[in-house]
DNA sequence: CTAAGGATTGACGTCAGCGTCAAGGCAACC
DNA sequence: GGTTGCCTTGACGCTGACGTCAATCCTTAG
């Protein structure tokens, strides 16, 4: 199958697939006319990548999984490197949760003290961003 | 005081201060030689911006607070708009916490099933990114 | 006089993961 | 042979909050 069909079946875009290839995550033989030719295994591979991204892994984090599948394993997480990524990412997520909890506390505290000071706050016209004197975005 | 001192006292960099100015958050009169001239109120203002960023607000979110201080209020969160930002951000943080919790569950599940399948996973040499055929980064 | 240490503006780089556009080639159908 | 649809590569855009570099100016101390 060609790149468009793979994209549809895997639930992504051709642009993403070409990007994965540029990052070395996906390789495809070319037909005589230069078109990429994919098989069923690629559908699974892309599916694995997307699933991993859904649980918070970066594209770079999926490398070990891809390598594991290429090495002939049934699943991408049959290899030590992949497990390691799981554990590292879990630690990162936990750290993020903690940090975000602190952020939440800070926000709640600020909100509470603001409300305590002024049961009925005032209103100020508004402050739109100026015509942006260079430093273009 | 000039921009370097303000940066030191507020705990940031001159680049950040100039950026804030380009975004309309900070305004300073100029001396005869073109140097920006700041006063004590700017130290407080920049401090407010940094504190707000620390609790998760984007620069854009700090606009109402800056406007509130400019309007002569003691604190940046004495105005209705600021309170609104607090509440909106709190909702965002809660949503993020929920989502991150789900990500965590997904990770834990994947880790568990991978470990269940293979108490002693294999090892694969490694898959370094290729020489990057265009799509440069 | 010169060197050092700030200050100024402008412009490009960074990180992730693609989106979007452009110009053109290939294949099939009417 | 013209249209449609899919494919190719290349290149720039986007988000946020600045970092970094370059070229030049101002002030002060030695």
UniProtKB/TrEMBL annotation, chains A, B:
Residues 1-68 form the HTH merR-type domain. Transmembrane segments: none annotated. InterPro entries: DNA-bd_dom_put_sf, MerR-type_HTH_dom, MerR_fam. The keyword Transcription regulation applies. Pfam families: MerR_1. Keywords: DNA-binding, Transcription, Transcription regulation. One of its GO terms (molecular function) is DNA binding. This is MerR family transcriptional regulator. The lineage of its organism: Bacteria, Bacillati, Actinomycetota, Actinomycetes, Pseudonocardiales.
